[in-house]
Design a protein that fits this description.
mainly alpha; DNA-binding transcriptional regulator of glucitol operon
Length: 121
């Protein structure tokens, strides 16, 4: 279960979130030192906001990790019931130009699928 959080993508994300969380507190301390040196109300507000941003980011990250742990790992794998391709219906009623264009698109689609299937074999 926890092994999913040890993939390279997740480890990089863990490190990034940790670095950003620590950075928000350093930025808050920096703004606090500017405010104490007579920076004004804006510096005081930023001194409070930076740690809040870090806490909010950490809260969202914990939720994302929790969702990943609750997710079914097999839901990404296609099953037998999945329809991978349906032949498009060609409208032959009404406008003959539209019907000819739709037939042309269907032919291009068939060629592309044939090349893709032949390429893999």
């Amino acid at each position: 279960m926890w092994y999913r959080l040890l993939t390279p993508k997740w480890v990089l994300l863990h490190l990034l979130v940790a670095a950003l969380f620590v950075a928000t507190f350093f930025l808050g301390y920096w703004q606090l030192s500017k405010a104490e040196a007579g920076g004004g109300a804006v510096n005081w507000s930023y001194a409070l906001q930076w740690p809040l941003y870090g806490g909010m980011g950490l809260w969202f990250y914990v939720r994302m990790v929790r969702d990943e742990l609750r997710r079914d790992p097999d839901e990404d794998q296609p099953g037998n019931a999945v329809v991978l391709y349906q032949r498009p219906r060609i409208d032959t009623t009404g406008d003959p130009e539209l019907a000819a264009y739709n037939a042309y698109l269907a032919e291009l689609n068939e060629r592309a699928l044939g090349q893709r299937a032949g390429h893999g074999q």
